[in-house]
Structures are given as structure tokens and as C-alpha cells.
């Protein structure tokens, strides 16, 4: 139960931070055509998870609970794209290049396909 609380509290913090930062970045951009706020959040999340992952690997500064709170909770609430980026890099670093390419391709291709499918089903139901 404690683990779920760590993840939940971190998720709350990350989600609120994403809402605030993406809105702020979008407002600064003065653009209604391009989602600069989402891009900013995803890039910041990727940089932070890369930094903290290296710190965790090199210095072993995270306990199991603090990893859940920071990586799964805060960064997961902030952006799951950072986790995707970190897992992709880990596959490449581990020499699993084919798996890495399949992983990236599946996320992009199947993810976009799943959005299209969901929208298509909703359109058919509620047109």
C-alpha cells in the first residue's frame, strides 16, 4: 500500500507541474497552431529522467521507494514520454538495437494507429 501512495503522491505533483508548465510555455509561445507546451514538457521530462537515471546508475542514490516516487510518480505524472525515451535509450545502450527500433516504431506506429482507431469508433457511434 505504501508503494501506491508514493506513486500516487508523485503522480499528483507531476500532473500539476505538467498542467502549469505546459500552459505557461504555450502562453509564452503566443501560438495556437503548434503545441509548444506539450513539446516543452516532454523535452524537460526527457532531460530530467536522463539526468536522474545516470545519477541512479552511477551513484545508486535512489531507494526502491524513492524511485517509485520520482520516476513512476512525479515523472510519470509529468510525462510518460520521458519513460519511453529512457527505456528506448536503455535498449540501445544494452546493445538491443533491434528491440529498440521495434519499441520506438511500435509506439509511434501503433500509438498513432490506436488514436485513429479510437477516434474512428467514437465517430461511428456519435456522428
Concise synopsis of the structure shown:
With 127 residues, the protein is an all-alpha fold. It has 5 helices and no strands.
Can you characterise this structure?
The chain is mainly α and 127 residues long. The chain has a domain at 2-78. The protein contains five helices and no strands. The chain has helices at residues 2-29, 36-59, 64-78, 80-93, 97-126. Helix 1 (2-29) packs parallel to helix 3. The radius of gyration is 17 Å and the shape is globular. 17% of the residues are buried.
Give me some keywords for this one:
single chain, 127 residues, mainly alpha, 5 helices, globular
Question: How are the SSEs ordered, and which strands pair?
Answer:
Elements (H helix, E strand, L loop, with lengths): L1 H28 L6 H24 L4 H15 L1 H14 L3 H30 L1
Helix pairs in contact: 1-2, 1-3, 2-4, 3-4, 4-5
Class based on secondary structure composition and strand pairing: mainly alpha
Average per-residue pLDDT, rounded, comes to: 93
- Largest sheet, described in full? none
Oligomeric grouping of the chains:
single chain
Q: What is the beta-strand fraction? A: under 5%
Please provide the ordered H/E string of secondary-structure elements: HHHHH
Overall geometry comes to globular
In terms of per-residue confidence, which ranges show pLDDT below 50 for 5 or more consecutive residues? none
Q: Provide the gyration radius in Å.
A: 17 Å
Query: Span from first to last CA?
Result: 43 Å
Helix content: over 70%
What's the number of extended β-strand segments?
0
Helical stretch count?
Answer: 5
